[in-house]
Write a structure and sequence with these properties.
single chain; about 170 residues; mainly beta; Sulfite Oxidase, Chain A, domain 2
Length: about 170
């Protein structure tokens, strides 16, 4: 369990989740509204930049595609900046996020996420190194051009493909 800084304190009474940027109309959910969205179960492996993997994880949450069903995406949107507590961000192409196994997880292996693992909500992107699966997620901002996130600005590879060993940046 790796993260930078302290585990954030989250107040569910004021928590919200937003989709902004290149959409016709931004949307916002409260915690209760987000919990009312349909849920999916996804099985995936985790690959960490520190060279360990954990196989056959079971995640329960709301699929990325379900969240996107509630907005009209503008044609120029090609990337997403995922925004998390304490100003953390990560970036991904929409083509990657639209895969059928990408979700906003509420549970891991049948147990609610703990604060150290991203409670109340974490993104899970199975085909990328796990730093792209941001903890404590609060928003998606759709953008036209790629915008490297926190870890990518601090030396991690922008693509994060574990099958190509894309751990660290060349620049």
């Amino acid at each position: 369990m790796l993260h930078y800084g302290a585990v954030p304190s989250v107040d569910l009474a004021t928590w919200d989740f937003r989709v902004t940027g290149l959409v016709e109309q931004p949307v916002r959910w409260t915690w209760e509204e987000f919990l009312a969205l349909p849920r999916v179960t996804v099985h995936s492996d985790i690959h960490c930049v520190t060279r360990w993997s954990r196989f056959d994880n079971r995640w329960l949450g709301v699929s990325f595609s379900e969240v996107m069903r509630h907005v009209t995406v503008k044609p120029e949107a090609r990337f997403a900046v995922i925004r998390a507590e304490q100003g953390f961000t990560t970036n991904l192409p929409l083509a990657e996020l639209n895969q059928d196994d990408v979700l906003f997880a509420l549970q891991h292996d049948g147990v609610d996420l703990t604060p150290e693992h991203g409670w109340p909500l974490r993104l899970v992107v199975p085909r990328r190194y796990f730093w792209k699966s941001a903890k404590w997620v609060r928003a998606i901002e759709l953008v036209a051009d790629d915008r490297p996130g926190f870890w990518e600005q601090n030396g991690y590879h922008n693509q994060a493909d574990p099958w190509h060993e894309e751990r660290f940046s060349d620049w």
